[in-house]
Design brief:
The protein is α/β, with parallel strands linked by helices. The chain has helices at 4-15, 52-66, 115-130, 142-151, 183-189, 203-214, 228-240, 246-249, 266-299, and strands at 19-27, 37-40, 45-47, 80-83, 87-93, 105-112, 134-138, 157-162, 176-179, 195-198, 221-224, 252-253. A 6-stranded antiparallel beta sheet has the order 3-2-1-6-5-4. It has a 6-stranded parallel beta sheet with strand order 9-8-7-10-11-12, with helices on both faces. A hairpin with a 3-residue loop joins strand 4 (80-83) and strand 5 (87-93). Helix 1 packs antiparallel against helix 3 and helix 4 packs across helix 9. It starts with a helix and ends with a helix.
């Protein structure tokens, strides 16, 4: 598994002199929030502060700083630039003057990366990676593969769980894979706030895994691939044989990705499911602290 932290380390180790470009402050409508950053070298970049003319200006200024013998550009009335040898500040209105009509204003700080800042960036990336929400995909078939590829692009820690070794071949490098004869046990070990997408090759196995996931009350998402008939069959089994409740069953999303788009091609299902899962993860991250606060207030 190749993590985002590893990619950052490889970039820093490969490109030589680098500048950190970071959104320091924002006002109004802006492409990215304060704290968003990118790294700029003479020949390549890592990350983004939102694209558009703002990003081009920041990259240009960073590369001026990386070429100490190059002439520095001056300021104008719309973009104030303060420069010293190792850092600069851009204060940019996002209006027609720069061909970007967000309407807000962004302050961007640019610093040359030294050994201390490099360690700070890696430590920050490691902390952020440790906080990523977990998404467990049970099944590495056509839809599982496509969904893993879609989720690998998002800020999630993806784990693909399979009982078949060959089904784990070809997964994205940033995805964790687990081969196990008892995938339902992985559900019990998952951290709170995880999302579970169940799409194995075996309906009975799907049912077993979904039942384990629904019996947890701290999940962000539980989804199962399938038809209305499969969902109805699962409900009957879950309530009568698995000692499940109607409330627990009500949290099941099936089919994953919804049924508004009548297209069963794996990449299409994966795109719809990835959006659905990401929406649930964000909503859960917002609601969980509120629920904890409400419970604490009631207890007090």
């Amino acid at each position: 598994m190749n993590s985002k932290v590893q990619e950052l380390k490889e970039f820093l180790g490969r490109v030589g002199r680098t500048a950190l470009v970071e959104v320091a402050a924002t006002k109004g409508s802006t492409p990215r929030e304060a704290g968003a950053f990118m790294l700029v070298s003479i020949s390549s970049i890592f990350g983004t502060i939102g694209g558009g003319q703002l990003e081009y200006m920041a990259i240009d200024k960073a590369r001026q700083m990386l070429r100490p013998l190059s002439p520095r550009t001056g300021a104008d009335s719309e973009a104030r630039i303060e420069v010293d040898e190792v850092c600069a500040t851009l204060d940019v209105p996002l209006g027609p003057e720069i061909g970007q009509c967000c309407g807000g204003r962004v302050e961007v700080s640019i610093r040359l990366v030294d050994a201390s800042l490099e360690r700070e960036l890696i430590a920050k990336a490691e902390a952020e990676e440790a906080r990523l929400p977990h998404v467990y995909l049970f099944g590495g078939g056509h839809v599982g593969q496509a969904l893993a590829e879609s989720l690998a692009l998002l800020p999630t820690h993806v784990v693909v769980v399979e009982t078949r070794a060959d089904a784990l071949e070809g997964m994205p490098e940033t995805v964790e894979t687990r081969l196990t004869p008892m995938p339902e046990a992985v559900v019990r070990e998952a951290p709170a706030g995880s999302a579970f997408a169940i799409l194995t090759h075996d309906h009975a196995l799907d049912f077993l895994i979904v039942a384990e996931a629904l019996k947890r009350d701290d999940t962000a998402y539980v989804g199962m691939i399938g038809s209305k008939t499969k969902k109805a069959t699962f409900k009957n089994w879950f309530l009568k044989s698995a000692e499940g409740s109607d409330a627990q069953f009500g949290r099941l999303v099936s089919p994953i990705g919804g049924n508004a788009v009548k297209d069963k091609r794996p990449p299409v299902i994966a795109a719809l499911a990835a959006a659905e899962i990401m929406t649930s993860l964000v909503s859960h991250a917002v609601e969980a602290p509120r629920s904890a606060g409400a419970e604490k207030a009631m207890a007090g």
